[in-house]
Amino acid sequence: MDMFGADGGSYTDNLIGTLLAIFGNVLVSVSLCIQKYSHVTLAGTKDPRAFYSAKTWWCGFVLTCLGEGANFVSYAFAPLALIAPLNAVSVLTSFILGFIFLREKSKPSDFAKRYGLSFLGSVLTIGGTYLFVAFGPNSHEKLKAENIVTHLVGWPVLLYLLLEVIMFSLLLYFYNQRSAQYIVVILLLVALLGSVTVITVKAVSGMLVLTTEGSMQLDDPIFSVMFVCMVASVAFQARFLSQACKLYDSSLVASVNYILSTSFAIVAGAVFYLEFNKEDVLHICMFFLGTALCFLGVFLITKNRRRTKTFEPYVTMDMTNGVPTIHDKGLVVQSEFSGSFSYGALVNNDGVAPATLPVGNQEQPSVGSTEASSNLPDLKTD
Fold it and tell me: How large is the average pLDDT for residues 107-132?
């Protein structure tokens, strides 16, 4: 009966944590859509107010806080191996909301060609999520301060942290000294920091939940250590992730970062919190199959997004007026506001009339002056 009660309690905690993580990821995606709508509306109406003065932006901000809070609390109830892959729910929700708000009209063949891979990726993501949630680890322990210290001083954790420090130092050396600003290098740095983040977030969240239940854990030194490591890892992780977004396409960064960060988070949970110790081989294989399907689904969803071309101008001379004109063959990220919400639709600019460049004197030179200049004697040059 004790074993049954423990298993039942563990199953209930896992269910609570999984539902909180799904709810939090959905809220974050909805909040980003609302904030995007706020920015587009202010830009389209030429409103001079700052974005933080709009009620819709604050609504999105509140939803973001609620979603991130739900994600934070979910770590206290469910294993890292269940919570980390659920970030795919955020990618899936963003794709669905973006598809709804695009409001584009296209032929069925063009529609299938453009969105076929994305819908296939959505199906794979949903199926993979079901598999890794159904067959994921069902272990859960109360993260008291002494339990965290016991995990921290174990030789597997110390070896894992040593390997992480060596790998992070090598990558940081190549990144700073050799200017190896490849996407894999930057996102590996993000993933290594992310593994530390999820370990510390789970510890801090677990101790906070126990404190609210009446068992004080905040006065233990390990709480302060975990909290400081959590804040520092999040700050540096955001810095490297911002650098990756500046250098590479955001869709590529989203898919590669999800794959690498989830992989390192699963390994961190397996090593630090021993989440797979009591699982059989079948459950482990099905879990990793579901995770692989989620990886493939997220890759297909983000791969099919239309990418932004850089501004590629070419200048021609309008022989009628003698005025240079500039043309753009690229794409713009956000079209001018036309009364409808397009959710950042990418609009081709080929059909736009070329813009004229202002010049000081737009009068055509007279034929006589041209002939006169041609009849001038050659100047002697030294």
Answer: 83
